[in-house]
Write a structure and sequence with these properties.
Layout (H helix, E strand, L loop, with lengths): L1 E4 L14 H9 L3 E5 L10 H7 L2 E3 L2 H7 L2 E3 L6 H4 L7 E4 L7 H10 L2 E4 L14 H18 L21 E5 L3 H12 L3 E6 L2 H11 L4 E4 L2 H10 L2 E4 L14 H5 L6 E4 L20 E4 L2 E4 L9 H22 L1 H7 L1 H4 L2 E4 L2 E2 L2 H7 L6 H4 L1
């Protein structure tokens, strides 16, 4: 198979879909790889490294999309990239279609086979290709939130861990999954007062044991969210419904009750966000103020630490890339129900139920379209 790796074009996105090590694995299995010039330059991966691994360097994205049987990316295709997709071409990347009807329409019209990292599953019910970036985003959310709390950034001017004689900041984490756990881990380590809310009692029990009483756990209800959020200095939105739009847990009315200069970091913004007032921002302009509260809603947060994120992501995606290349997409999907769960759009048909429901399309199960 001929695999293509274009350079990411989203604002301040420097990650890349394959590393030279991944290219070498594919070449060893008699596949071909073309990589757009300077695709990995932003994280210190040179064209020469890709060439030494066996890749062919091409001058632009148009050459990648025109020739590749499978395109491996990181972020969802931008409008210019969607226009270059063709019928039957495999696209393997993050898609986050539920809050993005324009992208969904473009993928459907292209006739491509779009497989989303974020809906691939595993035997334990996890999301193995989302987890590495969730770990990064969870840890970064506290780093970003702590910085945004500084007065010069528009925040209230609170040090997350406080100092002797002064209370630390109150951090509320909505969701106890991978993002929430990693956010809580960093916040506790920095000395903040941390509360995690979740609707799973077993998960709350697990977190209580993991942190040995160093944070508070609360069962998530409208009332407990409202009470926690309105007294918080920093709120992390870490909820996820796989493939679907994130639920709006925090209303505008709740935000009005928060202190001016408090900060919210919406890690769920890729799926539409879990604050009523959230809208996507970029690393170039990461924050805005609404109802007196500073919002940090960067849609590609792990891109801020692009080198770490690339290696973490490609460690997880490479086995699936190899399977798709070795067996062809159809057989690879039929052989692996967990990879098959990643199929969102197949030649004009929506094949993921949560995506179809969120966007109002007819749903056809992946097994049927294959």
């Amino acid at each position: 198979m001929l695999i293509g790796v274009p350079k990411e074009i989203k604002v301040h996105e420097y990650r890349v879909g394959l590393t030279p090590a991944g290219v070498r694995e594919l070449i060893a299995r008699n596949h071909q790889v073309i990589v757009e010039r300077q695709a990995g330059a932003g994280i210190g991966l040179s064209d020469e490294q890709y060439q030494l691994a066996g890749a062919e360097i091409v001058t632009d994205a148009a050459a990648v999309f025109a020739r590749a049987e499978m395109v491996v990316k990181v972020k969802e295709p931008q409008p210019a990239e969607c226009r270059m997709l063709r019928e039957g071409q495999v696209l393997f990347t993050y898609l986050h279609l539920a809050p993005d009807p324009q992208q969904a329409k473009a993928l459907i019209e292209s006739g491509c086979v779009a497989i989303a990292y974020e809906t691939v599953t595993d035997a334990r019910g996890g999301l193995p290709l989302l987890a590495p970036m969730s770990e990064v985003a969870g840890r970064m959310s506290i780093q970003a939130g702590a910085h945004t709390l500084e007065k010069a950034q528009g925040g209230i001017g609170v040090l997350l861990g406080g100092v002797p004689g002064v209370t630390p900041a109150e951090v509320v984490v909505l969701g106890g999954g991978v993002v929430g756990y990693n956010a809580a881990r960093v916040a506790v380590g920095m000395g903040a007062q941390v509360t995690v809310l979740d609707r799973s009692l077993s998960r709350l029990n697990q977190l209580d044991q993991l942190f040995e009483g160093r944070l508070q756990t609360l069962f998530s209800t409208f009332e407990s969210v409202e009470q926690s959020v309105t007294r918080a200095d920093l709120v992390i939105g870490a909820v996820l419904v796989p493939g679907a739009a994130a639920p709006k847990l925090v209303t505008r009315e709740m935000l009005r009750k928060m202190r001016d200069g408090a900060v919210v970091v919406d890690v769920a913004i890729d799926q539409g966000g879990c604050f009523e007032t959230s809208r996507p921002t970029t690393h170039q302009n990461p924050t805005y103020i609404e109802e007196g509260v500073v919002h940090y809603c960067v849609a590609n947060m792990p891109g801020g630490v692009a080198r770490t994120s690339t290696f973490a992501l490609t460690n997880a995606t490479l086995p699936f890339v190899l399977a798709l290349a070795d067996h062809g997409y159809r057989r690879a999907l039929l052989n692996d129900e967990h990879l098959c769960a990643g199929l969102n759009v197949h030649q004009g048909v929506v094949s993921h139920q949560a995506v179809a429901s969120a966007l109002g399309y007819d749903y056809t199960p992946a097994q049927e379209v294959l």
